[in-house]
Amino acid sequence: MAIELEKRELRSYDVRKKKYKQTILIAAVISTVVLIVVTFFIVRNIINKNFNNFEVVQSTERNDSSAAKYLPYEGGLLRYSRDGVAALNSNGKQLWNGTYQMREPIVDICNKYVAISDRGYKTIQIYDGSGKNYTINVLLPIIKVKVASQGVVAVLMDGGSTNELKLLTQEGETIVEFRTIAEKNGYPLDISLSKDGKRLVTSYATLNTGSLLNNVTFYNFGNVGQNAQDRMVGAFGLGPTLVPDVEFITNDIAAAFGDNKFSLYSIEQTAKLIYEENFTKEIKTVLHNGKYIGFIFNNSEGSDKYQLVLYDLQGKIILNKGINYEYDTAILSGDEILLHSNLDWRIIKTNGQEKFKYTFTNNISYIMPLNNTDKYIVIDNQKIDEVKLIESK
Which of 44, 144, 205, 231 has the fewest CB atoms below 10 angstroms from its CB? Predict the structure, then answer.
């Protein structure tokens, strides 16, 4: 009898234990679901916040001429002109500077490195982000210069009937060089160097029996390229289109932007076509960052003035949106598209939502994003302002 009672008590204990575990499990599941839902709404509210004004966090008077130009640089600004360059933080404080004399300076930036050359002349200035400067003199007039994250530069030079392409260290030592013949290979339109300095893409235009053709060619300066003739690891004919712009979007994905088409390529080792699309509408603006590629088209057939189309790096369309206002400058930064004219400023999220709209009372020269969310740099003729957006109530 005692044994039977003990068995019943054990069974009762097991049932209670099982029910307790089930209760704990159900509570844990409910808590997890509630947490996910709350997190979803918090994130959605953050993403979908709307703003209608801004406050000035820092303001610095400009001490340069109206001829000075600005580019985003390392969370701040790069200011350059015909006689020098300076890096500024977001408050407008100078971090480093350099002097030179150039008629038409062209600038390329990769991380902290800056390369500045004088188009049509023979000097390259390289700055390493700490204020140290390297000067490289070449033998032929410069067409294009691109810099990598460790200071390696690719320089394309005009030799008349031939063109020379060199990969140089920041001290000016030649890593690799080769020549192209204009009559055979065509005229160079653009080059782009990968961030690690080991891959290069070129765009050349040729005339074949009176027809314009464009070729995009890839080179690998790493171990893979040693086994390829002239280190060439891929060549693609794009037909009767002009491709004035080729870019490395990431270290191993490149894009070719033509006047009526674009192509995406993977170049981890050899080059492979990822995606290609032809356009019937006229391209007004090309946008790209490390996540997206975008185009703003003139939209003569629709009700909107322009059409914004955004792609991921596999060629999938993630945004197709009409724009019915004028702009002078467009910047793709993170998950935002900044559009501004001298008086109007708009910010569109990559989900299509208009995040911000504002009209200035004085002319604006530049608007640039900062790394911090909802903070931007606004530059007019007198001052540089760091601003923070104010949320709509």
Answer: 44
pLDDT reading at 211 higher than 90: no
Tokens at 114, concatenated: 């800056």
Task: Give me the DSSP letters along 84-149.
Answer: EEEEE-TTS-EEEEEE---SSEEEEEETTEEEEEETTSSEEEEE-SSS-EEEEE-SS-EEEEEE-T
**Structural domain includes residue 37:** no
Domain total in the chain: 1
Lookup: tokens for 227: 């086994």
- Residues 261 and 321 sit within 8 Å (Cβ to Cβ): no
CA 25 to chain centre: 47
Q: Which domain holds residue 307?
A: 63-311
Q: 199 near 218, Cβ under 8 Å?
A: yes
**Helix/strand/coil for 249:** coil
- The total number of residues shown for the chain amounts to 393
| CA–CA gap between residue 59 and residue 386 (Å, rounded) | 6
Determine the residue type at 380: D
**Residues near 139 by beta carbon (within 8 Å), at least 6 away in sequence:** 122, 157
Classify residue 146: in a domain, yes or no: yes
CA-to-CA distance for 375 and 393, rounded, in angstroms? 19
pLDDT greater than 90 at residue 11:
no
Q: Does 354 fall in a domain?
A: no
Section 277-281 average pLDDT: 96
- Contact in structure between 70 and 385 (CB atoms under 8 Å): no
Q: What is the pLDDT of residue 269?
A: 86
Indicate whether 287 pLDDT > 80.
yes
Q: Are 153 and 167 within 8 A, CB to CB?
A: yes
Rounded to the nearest 5°, which phi and psi values hold at 284?
A: -95, -40
d(CA 190, CA 204): 7
